[in-house]
Request: fold
Amino acid sequence: MKLILVHKTAASRSIAVGRWSVAVLSVVCLGLPLGLMALGYELGQRQGAHEAQAERLSAAEQVVSQRAKELAQLSSDARRTLGAMTRKLAELQARVTRLDALGTHITALAGLDGGEFDFTTDPALGGPLVVSQVDELDPAALSQDMAFFSATLDDRDTQLDVLAGLLFDTEAQAEAIPSGRPITSGWLSSGYGYRKDPFTGQRAWHQGVDFAGKAGGEVVAVASGVVSWSGEKAGYGTMIEVAHGDGLVTRYGHNDENLVEVGDLVRKGQAIALMGNTGRSTGPHVHFEVYKHGRPVDPSSYIRRTLR
Reply:
């Protein structure tokens, strides 16, 4: 094969090219574009793979982020639930302590057999061990146990109330029904029912009556009974609760000082506290409530009642 080189000013020249040279030139002229095309295709494939992988990673990151948010929400809900259960257990424990003290004192006063009414030891329990198939704590089962525990305490409270009623003689039983005002001097400053809240200014329910007076004035029991609470209580400040039997309970809140302790027997008209301004209060007064079978009732009918 010959290649002829043509020049404008010089004579033409011819170059003889062998078969091997032709083969090399053919490979170069045809292979180079094909190689470039193959390289471009390979680079395109790699770029597409990288983009697909990036999309998969982005989707996976979104899933992980969503799971993390869900876990954070579950953790927050669990903390709130645990806090609520902790407060409930603390409340139940306070009730147990109060009832134990009351029961021990009443048992001693009544001269009853300590074996039948023993409030100093835990209740006797037993039964075969049953291995649970679930190792994790079951919130539903825990809530059910707490409900059972609360119901048991309510039943124990009722029995203690009945026991307290049995301690009084005929005269004391006649005085066990609340009547009259819980103060020796003062005036009615707020009634039972809806009113304008003195702190928020909003319409709110008031489940007792308020009697205002001078700080340090006597707060008296409106009926004979057994002191079932003497101490601090949220919203009430320094408070006294007296059980009168037959499901009747009276409360005296915001006291400056309590004069009786849990388990004490009190008679109608006895000074049980000094008027104060503790708790959620705007001035010296006693917040007076009457409960019947665990529910607050309007104290007005008892305040107007006269002892027969």
Notes: Residues 129-136 have pLDDT under 50 and may be disordered. The two ends are 144 Å apart (CA to CA).
